[in-house]
Amino acid sequence: MCGNTDEEDTTDSGYSSKFGPPIAYDPTFRGPVKSRNCTDVFCCILFVICVASMIGVSVFGFIHGDPRRLLYPTDSKGNICGYGEFVDRPKLVFFDLLTCSKMGRDVESLGCPTPQVCVKECPTENYVYLESAQEEKANRNKILQKERERLICKYGVDRMTRNIQDLVSQGLCTAYYVKSISVAHRCIPAVFKSNSMYDVLQSGNSTVKLMSKDGDKITPNALAEATRYLIEFHKFQEYGEMIFSDIKNSWLLIVVCFLIAVLISLVWVILLRCIAAVLVWVTLIAFFALLGFVIYYTFNTYVELKNSGKENDFGLTPAFAGNFEYYLGLEQTWLAAGIICSVIFVVCLLLLIFVAKKLCLAIELIKEASRASTAMIFTFIWPFVPFLLEAGILFYWITSAIYLATMGRPETYRNVVNISHGMKNLSRIHCNNHNGKFVEDMCDFVHYGDSKYAVAFEVFLLFMVFWLISFVTALNQMVLSGAFATYYWSYNKKMDIPTFPILASFGRAIRYHLGSLAFGSLIVAIVKFIRVILEFISYKLRNSHNKVARFMLKCFSCCFWCLENFLKFLNKNAYIQIAIHGKSFCVAAKKAFALIMRNPLNTVIMDKVTDLILFLSKLMVTAAVGEYSSSLIFIFIFMS
């Protein structure tokens, strides 16, 4: 019986003696060992200090930060729209979006160099100030209140007595605006929401000819160029609204399907105990059959689209295609999907042929794991604990990051026009302010910054998130390892297994091995952090022409990705050794590495093949729940 086998190291043929001799059989060994000492105490102290520092940083951010600055837009004078004096004006309007394009990518850091004011609602029509001027001229220069109310002006401007031309030329009121939508409370042209307005402006059939205060014609392409940095933001908001709406409308169905998935998973585990071999082969056959059907469907769709000659682009360029229908109408999409699925099919088939003889060992392992899981029913409940811990860590990080990002002082800039070779170049320079009051009327608020500590605090907080997430993963692995080790070395399963093996293993991990968990997770967190730094540098150099530097960055990123995955694999086996023997992290990692190197083939089979089979089992459960949910949706629609 697998469950009654004492600790014994059986090696693959041809193993090297430099990894040490096999572990001798000890009939008296009973794991996990009960006599333990605290391990890696220094790392435990360091972990506690860092967590306390993280809490201190968050408290500092909570005291000095204001999330309203990030969640709501701010006008050119630093007023938060929709709050305080401007509680009835939650939207932000840009006077002249064309000036945004003159800044290029600097607009992301220096802001759009045009006045911005808070308004009640975004414009619902296309308007140019010449329209009102001509209307008043036709009425013998009589001021028309209806026309003046259409103007969008700076705060405190008397638009009822002054000449319209003067209001616009002096920059007190906007020369034009277009029908807009609200994106994160900011008004942007509705061309990004609907293609109809774009077509009207492009064709020239609109009764309103948009012009700037300098008399330049406003084209839809110019608007697109001026606001192209808002396109991606709008897409994210649209997707977010769709996701939120779907969850709101189908939360009951989601809960029902979740419970069904739990029930099917439990039944699947019980079936694995009884007919593991049959289920494993059925799972593999079903996987290859499903993948084969997907390959047929993708290539068949590709051929149909190619023969039809239909270009289903919906009148949009890829930059403006905000839905998946655009890509589903491209024959290249289906060709790429078919090729990828074919490669996956061939690779999986070759892997199956290579490890076919070892599948029996994997099946026996799955049977024993099924027996252990049903013998310790709390193993089905425990996964919710690390899930909730990780969700709490992510929520804590997002909240703290928002406060830290908004604890700086207002930074203001003013526009400067430089003339070079007869060309006017627009730039912005930093201007001083005192106690939050702008010394010049031409100074515009851009963002909150100039904090000595904000960037350092956010970097430290990001590193701590990596460390804490890795720590929770390590804790989960050690707790489960200790519980299953208790089952493995229990000769009498009914008498020797404690009532709550999960809690007993959790207690051992927290009491004795907190430092070892911190040590292993710290190593993984450091590698993760280095990968983030490399990705950040790569992002900054995305427009660089130095191909050698970009290639080296890609190589480094690949190497650190491999290192991270190797460390995760080694750490998992080290935690198993710690859970059984109670050794420190370095000693356990050394023993785990030597054991793996003495049994490389068996390690691959026991780890990767079983992972593959369990992954396929998850796919089958997911497919079953998906089929059931589609049936429920059909029933709901039919009854409606």
TrEMBL record:
Domain of life, per UniProt, equals Eukaryota
Q: Where's it mainly located?
A: membrane
| Localization per record | Cell membrane; Membrane
Q: Which InterPro entries match?
A: Choline_transptr-like
Instruction: Give GO MF terms, alphabetically.
Output: transmembrane transporter activity
Respond yes or no to whether keyword Glycoprotein is given for this record.
yes
The protein's UniProt keywords, in alphabetical order, are: Glycoprotein, Membrane, Transmembrane, Transmembrane helix
Recorded GO cellular component terms are: plasma membrane
Residue stretches spanning the membrane: 41-63, 251-271, 278-299, 334-356, 377-398, 459-489, 510-534, 612-638
One Pfam family hit: Choline_transpo
Q: How does it sit in the membrane?
A: Multi-pass membrane protein
**Main role?**
Choline transporter.
| Protein family | Belongs to the CTL (choline transporter-like) family.
What protein name applies here?
A: Choline transporter-like protein
Upper taxonomic lineage: Eukaryota, Metazoa, Spiralia, Lophotrochozoa, Mollusca
